[in-house]
Amino acid sequence: MEILFEKGIPGFESYNYFNVSAIEGNERFYNIVSKEDSNIGFVSISPFEIKTDYEIDLDDEFIKELDIKDEKDVL
Hints:
Layout: E1 2-4, E2 17-23, E3 26-34, E4 41-45, H1 47-50, H2 60-66
């Protein structure tokens, strides 16, 4: 799967395209690796793996900026 961060990730603003793949042997964790520079990468986990009732409140301005049409689009 590929993810586009239009504005980059804080501290890594010049990298926009990342490949996401599950870590073999532990499907709860994911590698997120820059397509522009394979030396730039992160390990991530869904917050729901840690806290099943995790929620984040987004204000209307942020929802508009992210162009969110449906809450299913922001998992």
